[in-house]
Amino acid sequence: MVSLWDRSTSESDPVEPEKQPAVVTTTRRADSDYILDPDWDFQAPNQVRSYDWTITDQEGNPDGIFKPMMMINNQFPGPLMEINEGDVVIVNVKNQASNATAIHWHGIFQNGTNWMDGAAGVTQCPIAPGRSYQYKFNVTGQAGTYFYHGHQGVQALDGLVGPLVVHSRNEADRRPITYSSDRVILLQDWYYDSASGLMREVLSPGVEDAPIPNTALINGVNHAECAYHPNRKCHNSNDESLPTLNLTQGKSHRLRFLNVGGYAWFQVAVDEHSNLPVIEVDGTPVEPASSNTLTIAPGQRYSTILTADHSDKQAFWLRARMVTSCFAKQTLPENGTEEARAIVRYRSNHIQSRHEGHDEEEEEEEENSDDEGSFLPMTTSHIEYISTCQDMSAKTVFSPSPAQPAPASTDHSWYLRVNLAIGDWRLQRGVMNTSSFRPHLASPTLHRVLDGLAENNASFSPSGINAAAFDPHSELVIAHPRTKTVDLVLQNMDENAHPFHLHGYAPWVLAAGHGYFPGYEALGLAPPGSTVPEKEKVDNPLRRDTVTAEGFGWVLLRFVADNPGVWLLHCHVTWHSEAGMGMLLLTRFEDIRGQRVPDDARALCDAPADELAKGAPPGDEVFAGFKGGGGD
């Protein structure tokens, strides 16, 4: 493991290679691109926010080391989308990459536009290479911090990811702590090898461990020492800096942290700032909850407030450290870097907004006014390593504000045993009960459901686990015909922590723990199907869309199944999801009889099957009779 900032040079240090690429086209996004508009009109009339994206294959070097990537408009990460609740979003996607793709809007409910959810093989056919598609949806009934990412195979791990912020109408008036600036900070693990290549290795016979990331990125940036990677193409010029957060001194600032990675959990802290109160969790505003270190699982988001109130220093490290105890093998690859850093720098009058005009020469003079000793912070970390990968809510009480009490009783409770298991041909796969999910890329579940209902096919009408229309071994579907209150008990039977993301909903987290689920009575909750006349609600539990079942532990979720459509529930560790750790919830299916998938969405399925499958995991059948392989 290499520390890139704390070491001093010596004669034993490797020598930088003399040959570097003469010209490097930067794909890095400017720090200012992720600062939200300070003049944003929260009360603006609802409008259409349009974006034009071209997705291409591109070689990039986020930390200096080059690898093949997928990018939006030749930049990484993707652009910040900033909208108001009630706005209509239009994204025109032109796929010029070599693989098919689909874009999922992580945390967006898609109420009434299930076919826009972007889950390949579930709600849409992928966008084949050379084809285009328009996503169009309304964002109503939610606000907060979200993101988008490729949902075909492991494309998010190769760069197809970006932030989405939805403002509430009363956001300016309901701030529990006043802040003067607002920005997003993307955290992600990073692999030097192509993730699609790694995917085939992970799914091969005899392989039981997911690949460990080489490094971590903050807003798509880190800094690798090229000399430590002599066998890789690498370029780092000395004038390239780490991400910098220029914050007005004496003011408070909102930092929206998003873990958009595929495997690593992150611990996040700012040196010498002992309190980063949390005010939002996965789109749910909460009463300020004191914290000095955030623990963020893949897919999760937290908004915190940093107050620039130190008088003795002007620069501090913001650290995002991968939690190595969450990896099956708790060591990084040779010369790997477990920590990404950004510089928090106090400024008295620094221009905050990417939207405001400024004198570039004047700003450059200000940026270069520090002497060499103060350019890099000289602060130390207070992050303490953790050995158990649990959601922060296991130790911190988050109280939604305004209160969002859950129903006191449930109509149905589904017990789901989740684990990684070895099956035929020594293939390790993700399993929920006895099912390992395999999406039908050329015939999405939603299309089959709507077609079957339109034809009055009785096999699509059973409630509960539908084994008539779907093969429960590869497409576990739990169906409810009308609005119901539904519980999910996720019982984790292996040592890996599994952060589960539920599309279309933000369920209440009623309880979680280690060992076996103790039952409703032990938790003081009404058993399924019972009534509780003296109490109609459960007091204000946290709602979030990505919730962890810790290793050998359990979590109890409750939601009102009122969003009509087919919704994916899956582990947001990408390697586990692509190995099959997922299932589907079909809700209010009687209420979508007569609904049609738009013609342009249907037209995506006209592409040849082999084109639709590009970038997707290989089928298990390709390994039939395979004699090679072996553990890592």
Q: At the first level of CATH, what is the class of the domain at 406-623? A: Mainly Beta
Binned strand content: 25-35%
Quote the average pLDDT. Answer: 90
The secondary-structure class comes to: mainly beta
Specify the biggest β-sheet.
6 strands, mixed
Q: Which range best describes the helical content: under 10%, 10-25%, 25-40%, 40-55%, 55-70% or over 70%?
A: under 10%
Q: Give the uncertain stretches in residue-range form.
A: 1-24, 350-374, 627-632
What gross morphology would you assign? globular
Terminal Cα span: 19 Å
CATH architecture of the domain at 406-623: Sandwich
Quick tags:
632 residues, six-stranded mixed β-sheet, 8 helices, 8% helix, disordered N terminus, disordered C terminus
Give a structural overview.
Helices cover 8% and strands 31% of the residues. It contains 8 helices and 32 strands. By secondary structure, it is mainly β. Strand 1 (48-60) and strand 2 (67-72) form a beta hairpin. It has a domain at 406-623: Sandwich (Immunoglobulin-like), CATH 2.60.40. The longest helix is centred in the C-terminal third of the chain and has 10 residues, at 445-454. The strands form 7 sheets. Strands 10-9-12-17-14-15 form a 6-stranded mixed β-sheet, with no helix packed on it. The radius of gyration is 24 Å and the shape is globular.
